Amino acid sequence: MKILLTSDIHDNLVAVERMRAQETNQFDAVIIAGDIGSYKAQEIFDVFSSFECPVLYVYGNWDHKLEYDTSFGANCHHLHLNPFSLGDIAFVGFSGCTASWGRNPFAIHLRQEIDGQHPGIVSELSAARSHQDQVTSVIEAEYASALEELMASSRRKPSRAKIAVLDEQRRVKLYAVGDEVARLKNSEAFSRYENDLSGVTVAAQNLNRTALADLLKGTNRQVSRTVVVTHDRLSKTQEGFSGVPVFLFGHRHGFNETNFQGAQYVNVSVLDNRLLLRSRAVADARRRREFKNLNTGNYGVMEWTQQLGFTFRRVDLEIYPSWQDEWEVEEDFRKQGAPFLA
Ligand SMILES: [Mn+2]
Q: How far is the CA of 59 from the centre of ligand 1 (A)?
């Protein structure tokens, strides 16, 4: 049995496409250990689905906007407290991450309970935030039309000074709108509310853990042939997960395999790893250079045989062989949204 392991994609569809281009349909399953990305999830699942095998996944902190019951395709299976068997091997896991539980059902329930104990501050905050949203969109619309008017009325390019005046007016208005929310956040009631909320992270982690451990106990599944998938590494696995041979996780970017008390802990990968490149040649008359991102991520392959048990290896994304002819690495700054070298 051969399984493709990925995680920490962070909406980087181009990296997924590059991974797909260097692999053939030779896998029995694909596993994604979370951080798919809340904005490109469907496109990413479409690429994984083209392997024509089950795509098993859990959510991480980057997936906080994704619903737990969304279907991304007939082959896609959310492993959240929802086991999947493939031949002799069972895969189980839970979604969410201590960094952000997002729409995790246990975390939502806990937050609702705490909201119910602080009705005053919760409703005041919600009113202040929705007022802030409304007024903010008015300010932005006014700014956009003032800018447009300035552009239209200037014979050449409008002066930087005139644009700066509009920018400053916008900044002052936006700052004033945030006042009420800031005042509420400084209140006693808010700090009591926040203090109660701070327990949700640990409580949600414990509830998810316990539910998963109960699931393992309640079935006739052979624990020695069970693979546990979570976004961050599961700790204290002697409690409730004793006998499980493999724990897969991501979140801590990189590929790493360790053996601890008889179990293998595999940090699956970081598929979304980038190197910012600047062109060696200048791009225009003002001697500016062009910037692109190079995908330098990795993924993994897990194999299981009766004789050898589980084995793991890391695979790097193939890099354009001659990229250094035209590009050099830019180390001094990060550039948001630079296109990928393709
Ligand atoms: Mn993460």
A: 9
Question: Residue 274 is inside which H or E element, if any?
Answer: strand 274-282
Residue 220: the pLDDT is 65
Residue 220: what residue type?
Answer: N
Structural domain boundaries in the chain: 2-97+204-273+294-320, 108-197
Give the tens place of pLDDT for each residue, 84-128: 999 989 999 999 988 889 999 999 999 999 999 999 999 999 999
CA 119 to centroid of ligand 1, rounded, Å: 32
Cα 221 to averaged position of ligand 1 atoms, centre (Å):
29
Enter the CATH code of domain 2-97+204-273+294-320.
3.60.21.10
Q: What is the mean pLDDT of residues 37-44?
A: 97
Q: What are residue 76's phi and psi, to 5 degrees? A: -90, 135
| pLDDT tens for each residue of 196-219 | 999 999 999 999 999 999 999 876
The alpha carbon of residue 45 and the mean position of all alpha carbons in its chain are separated, in whole angstroms, by 14
Rounded distance from Cα 124 to ligand 1 centre (Å): 32
pTM confidence score: 0.85
Cα gap 275→334, rounded to integer Å: 9
The pocket of ion ligand 1, defined by CB under 5 A, consists of: 35, 60-61, 251
Alpha-carbon separation of residue 78 from 29, 38, 184, 228 (angstroms): 13, 15, 39, 13
Give alpha helix (H) positions in 220-328.
Answer: 323-326
Q: Which tokens hold the place of 339?
A: 């296109």
Determine the pLDDT at residue 158: 76
Tokens, residue 321: 């062989």
